Amino acid sequence: MTATDWIGFIGVAILLIAFFLNIANIIKSDSFLYLFLNLVGAGISCTASIMLKYIPFVIMEACWTMVSALGLVRYARKK
């Protein structure tokens, strides 16, 4: 596996961990941890997509990262 593969794998793993924890009712979708894991996972996945030069995934992961960042801003304002 290449470095790009590993970076992508780590990003996707973080996203799937967040999803699993949410589905298992361990964390809520509006919690800091869920939003943070999505931000980090999507950002890492976006980096791998940039390295692969696969624009559809770059767009998707960049949007996912921005939406997660917006969620964290709203979370911070609520506190």
Written account of the structure:
The protein is mainly alpha-helical. It has one domain (3-78). The chain is built from 3 helices and no strands. Helix 1 (3-23) runs antiparallel to helix 2. The chain starts with a helix and ends with a helix. The relative contact order is 0.16.
List its salient traits.
about 80 residues, mainly alpha, 3 helices, about 0% strand
What are the SSEs and their pairings?
Layout: H1 3-23, H2 32-52, H3 55-78
Query: How many structural domains?
Result: 1
Reported for the largest beta sheet, the result is: none
Shape: globular
Radius of gyration: 13 Å
The tally of strands reads 0
Contiguous helical run count: 3
Low-confidence stretches: none
SSE topology string = HHH
- What fraction of the residues are assigned to beta strands by DSSP? under 5%
N-to-C CA distance: 42 Å
Kindly state the percentage of residues in helix.
over 70%
Let me know the average pLDDT: 97
Class per helix and strand makeup: mainly alpha
